[in-house]
Amino acid sequence: MLKTFDLVLIGVMTATAAVTYTIKHRAELKVEEVHRLEAEIKLEKDTIDLLKADWALQSQPNRLERLVKAYNEELKLQPTESTALVHAKELPMLKSEVPVPDVTEAKASAKGATEASAKSATVASAKGAPDTKGAQATAKAQPIPVPAPRGEAEDADQIETGSVEE
User: Fold this and answer.
1) Measuring CA to CA, how many Å separate 3 from each of 7, 25, 99?
2) d(CA 158, CA 36)
3) Whole-prediction pTM value?
4) Closest residue by Cα to residue 159 from 83, 96, 51
5) Which of 50, 76, 101, 148 could form an SS bridge with 144, CB 3.0 to 4.6 Å?
6) How far is it, in rounded angstroms, from Cα 135 to Cα 122?
7) What is the per-residue pLDDT for 92?
8) Contacts with 94 (C-beta within 8 Å, 6 or more apart), sequence order
9) Binned average pLDDT, 10 residues per bin, the chain of 166 residues
10) Rounded to 5 degrees, what angle do the CA atoms 135, 138, 140 make?
């Protein structure tokens, strides 16, 4: 007759066998996934090598020269002169980088200057000494400074020629 302790041990052995089988099955699935990923990586590396070889073939100077001669009528290609190459700092600013002058600030400052000159003129006339020179100087509208395109103002005399640095 089986005692209770024997039944408990049989249950524990059955549970551990089930857990061991489950762990073994999951490990086998992970190994299969690793093999599948390694195969995909090898395929991608082979594809990259093939594309590099194709690029080397397509960009051979002799082939490009033949194409230039064959399509010269349509493309009208000419060699690049060394004076046509510039550095990135010599290029003008993009339109998105150019600061937009704020018209409302200019109007407000001009209005404030006019009011200040009117006040100083009335104070000066109240004292008996007209201050027309100071009033005229403050009444003039100040121009809004707009920065020159990058490279034009600073390096206009120092333009270098040569190849573009990468």
Assistant:
1) 7, 33, 92
2) 59
3) 0.39
4) 83
5) 101
6) 10
7) 80
8) none
9) 86 97 97 97 97 95 90 84 78 76 67 60 50 48 52 46 47
10) 110
Q: How far apart are CA 74 and CA 65, in angstroms?
A: 15
Closest CA to 121 of 133, 107, 108: 133
Nearest in space to 136 (alpha carbons), one of 124, 128, 147, 145: 124
Give DSSP secondary structure letters for 95-117: TTTSPPP-HHHHHHHHHHHHHHH
Query: For position 156, what pLDDT does the model report?
Result: 45
Burial class (CB in 10 A: 0-12, 13-18, 19+), 82: exposed
pLDDT of the residue at 115: 61
Write phi, then psi, for 56 (nearest 5 degrees): -60, -40
Per-residue confidence (pLDDT) for residue 76, from 0 to 100: 84
| 149 contacts 71 by C-beta, under 8 angstroms | no
What's the token pair of residue 3? 């005692």
